């Protein structure tokens, strides 16, 4: 398999990210999902954010076993889980993973996260007026923000597309 990157790096929200994640996790993930279905456990993955849910409270031992299985899958694929981001929610409230909210079967970005991304885009466009669009720093920030907007577009297509259209008008210039 040949993967195209920019300096060995994929920006956040790249359109290829879900496909790459599916290729990486493959059959190992499918086997886990089958096992969890038999146990009435729901396994959900959005690119690299994994959520486990159950209609009833899990025993600590059971929850620990599931977490170990998932971490084992990640480590087996050469991925390093970020244990600081691991959260356990108990109850019927909303789940929140990287500002992505799940509630009553719906998924969306937190309003504050959408506002933050739009502000980053606005600030980038303002800085372009002052410093230009031909620097490596501008190009890097542009790609990062475009990636965030691409991710946001999956959940809030119209809102994100308006920002993407503004950003594309101020694409980095060739040079630097």
Structural summary, described in words:
It is a single chain. By secondary structure, this protein is mainly α. The chain has two domains: about 80 residues, Alpha-Beta Plaits (2-Layer Sandwich); about 60 residues, no CATH class. It is about 55% helix and about 10% strand. It is built from five helices and five strands; from the N terminus they run H-E-E-H-E-E-E-H-H-H.
| Share in β-strands | 5-15%
**Strand-pairing-aware structural class:** mainly alpha
Find the count of extended strands (DSSP E, 2+ residues).
5
Morphology: elongated
Low-pLDDT runs of 5+ residues are none
| Number of helices in the DSSP assignment | 5
Radius of gyration equals 19 Å
- Overall pLDDT score: 83
- Please outline the major beta sheet: 3 strands, antiparallel
In the CATH scheme, the class of the largest domain would be Alpha Beta
- In the CATH hierarchy, the architecture of the largest domain is 2-Layer Sandwich
In short:
With 176 residues, this protein is mainly α. The chain has helices spanning 17-38, 60-76, 111-131, 136-155, 157-169; strands at residues 42-46, 49-53, 95-97, 100-103, 106-109. The chain has 2 domains: 17-92, 2-Layer Sandwich (Alpha-Beta Plaits), CATH 3.30.70; 111-169, no CATH class.
